[in-house]
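Hi support team,

I'm filing this because I wasn't sure whether my run with tricarbonodiimidic diamide finished correctly. The job status page said complete, but I'd like someone to confirm that the output block is well-formed before I use it downstream. Pasting the exact inputs I used:
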Amino acid sequence: MVSIPAQPYNYELLNLPNVALIIIDMQRDFLEPGGFGAALGNDVSRLRSIVPVLQKLLQTFRQLHLPIIYTIEGHQSDLSDCPPTKINRGNCKLKIGDIGPLGRILVLGEPGNAIIPELAPLPGEIIINKPGKGAFYKTNLQDKLSEQKITHLIFTGVTTEVCVQTTMREANDRGFECLLIENATESYFPEFKQATIEMIHSQGGIVGWTTKAENLLQALQ
Ligand code: TIU
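And here is everything the job wrote out:
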């Protein structure tokens, strides 16, 4: 058993192969100027700070042959999986499906929709394309996790209070033991990131646990 110092109390990995690293939406659309995040009016530069920590986590999970699952928020090119409410939300000049500097905004397969090159998935690593903020909504994520008997999920990626928190709540309701890595997730709004961390481990871990990457990496050595 591996015991990881965490809030609100230690996070126990009973059976190591049953844990997966989940990397949420580390896409050019959210991290680079000209993508979806910028179209919504955000300063996208702050999200890049977590890349080195994510690279360390990826390296360790790859060395230990533990499963890695990436998600990508994006829509079919005909936008048939995108509710009109999502397209119109924010009253932005550039909307989902419009052509921007990185290709069509938030459309699968477009250059801007790709995972940033520093974190590019390797062959065999799972990528879940998702139309919503939560990674379980209209995807086969639950089947993929059941196939590999995964019970424990390590959450990273962007943005903390939108896609990461939504997915973590979905996973918690489905019976997964969820751990958020505080320095491997980021938000356009630092105060929302902090609030999310506090929400997760309040009430005795109502949605799960949080810790720093160093604690996880040390425990896995
Ligand atoms: N806008 C924002 O903060 N996030 C998203 O739209 N998607 C994700 O969090 N990936």
